[in-house]
UniProtKB/TrEMBL annotation:
It holds the Pfam family CpsB_CapC. InterPro entries: Caps_polysacc_synth_CpsB/CapC, Pol/histidinol_Pase-like. The lineage of its organism: Bacteria, Pseudomonadati, Bacteroidota, Cytophagia, Cytophagales. This is protein-tyrosine-phosphatase. PANTHER family: TYROSINE-PROTEIN PHOSPHATASE YWQE. The keyword Hydrolase applies.
Length: 223
């Protein structure tokens, strides 16, 4: 779960040909199912359930024509801002996956003032928020109190596997490992956008946490 493989609707794959190449390589790595999650951001990627579903159907047809044996579903990666919070409060239906999970993200530098409120409102609406790549948020790395608040509330965390390879930076890698050690990370994701991500994913088996993530239990297996 967590990838950007529907072509042309966000900052992920640009063409159907690129999507098919990435999906073929992910399948070769042993994945049997993908839940791709296009960005929904009010100022940049104004995707809707309709545009995402149309893109998913086109992608499924192309995958079938290509003869790739892999299941593909779609949800979304929602950017948590004031507009997102209003969507939740107004009862607008969100794209979820699995057991009513909803993938959410924030900006990487500054903490959104409505962060904890958004989690609360999502839970009140019956959703289970999944916090995408918390290891990449600079404000969270620097704020021990906020880390404790999120862990105490048992917010489900999703770490990018590439973070464990040092793909983003060493301090992101270190924080990803420390989050996994807390036991609160329940999902792993590729966050695959393009070929660079797949190429780096192939190096995961050489990382020191590879055996640990293989031996751990992840909610991915229940999706």
């Amino acid at each position: 779960m967590h990838s950007h493989l529907i072509p042309g609707i966000d900052d992920g794959s640009k063409t159907m040909e690129e999507s098919l190449t990435l999906i073929r390589e992910l399948s070769d790595l042993g994945l049997s199912k993908l839940i791709t999650t296009p960005h929904v951001m009010s100022e940049y990627y104004r995707n809707t359930p309709e545009t995402i579903q149309m893109g998913l159907e086109d992608l499924r047809r192309a995958v079938k024509k290509e003869g790739l044996d892999i299941e593909i579903e779609a949800a979304a990666e929602y950017y948590m801002d004031e507009i997102f919070l209003e969507k939740v409060k107004s009862g607008e239906k969100l794209l979820s996956f699995g057991d009513n999970y909803v993938l959410v993200e924030t900006g990487f530098i500054n903490k959104p003032q409505m962060l904890l409120e958004s989690f609360f409102q999502m839970e009140m609406a019956g959703y289970k928020p999944v916090f995408a790549h918390p290891e990449r948020y600079q404000y969270l790395i620097a704020d021990k109190k906020l880390q404790e608040e999120i862990l105490e509330r048992n917010i489900l965390l999703q770490v990018n596997m590439l973070s464990l390879t040092g793909f983003y930076s060493k301090h992101v890698k270190d924080f990803a490992e420390s989050l996994i050690d807390t036991g609160n990370v329940r999902f792993l994701g590729s966050d695959c956008h393009n070929q660079r991500y797949v190429d780096m994913l192939k190096t995961l088996s050489a990382t020191r946490y590879y055996s640990k993530i293989k031996e751990s239990s992840w909610l991915n297996t229940q999706l």
